[in-house]
Amino acid sequence: MPSRTRKFRGLRTHGRGKKSGRGAGIIGGHGNAGLGKHKKLHMLKYDRKHFGRIGFKRPQCVVSANRIINIKEMLEQIESLGAKEGSAYSVNLTEAGIDKLLGAGEINIAVNVTVSQISAQARAKIEASGGSVTET
């Protein structure tokens, strides 16, 4: 037994006062205890992301994403999206609830498309196949 411990036998606190001898009292708690109170400055200085809340989250009713479709998907659904007028199909994507037409896929028939937004590649492919594009 170390001599210091032996020296304090019979004394209740071994020379540490009342609270510092109980558990982790002298160090302010174990682990993450006190990060919102007496260890707050340490947390703010060395571990800013401890609680994981940074910035704010926009409500979903405010966030609106464009509904998109590719040329390939449009051709697969062309019977339900539009009607054939002469030698060309007429498709109104705005009425179908689609905001933007993208250019993935090949097109070999003439299609007259009405849409609010269209990519440059999709416009070039539709006009090369003999169709036309109307932006609303």
Task: Note down, in words, how this protein is organized.
The chain has 136 residues and is of the alpha/beta class. 23% of the residues lie in helices and 19% in strands. It contains five helices and seven strands; from the N terminus they run H-H-E-H-H-E-E-E-E-E-H-E. It has helices at residues 3-7, 40-46, 71-76, 78-81, 120-128, and strands at 68-70, 82-85, 88-92, 100-102, 111-115, 117-118, 132-135. The strands form two sheets. Strands 2-3-5-7 form a four-stranded mixed sheet. Strands 1-4-6 form a three-stranded parallel sheet. The radius of gyration is 35 Å and the shape is rod-shaped. The mean pLDDT is 89.
What brief labels describe this structure?
4-stranded mixed β-sheet, about 140 residues, rod-shaped, 5 helices, alpha/beta, about 20% strand, 3-stranded parallel β-sheet, single chain
Helical segment count: 5
What's the mean pLDDT score?
89
* Topology order in helix (H) and strand (E) letters: HHEHHEEEEEHE
Percent helix among the residues?
10-25%
CA-atom Rg in angstroms: 35 Å
Strand order within the widest beta sheet: 2-3-5-7
Shape: rod-shaped
**In angstroms, what separates the terminal alpha carbons?**
89 Å
Q: Could you describe the largest sheet, including whether it forms a barrel?
A: 4 strands, mixed
Q: What proportion of the residues form beta strands (DSSP E)?
A: 15-25%
Structural class: alpha/beta
Counting DSSP E segments of at least 2 residues, the number of strands comes to 7
Poorly predicted parts = none
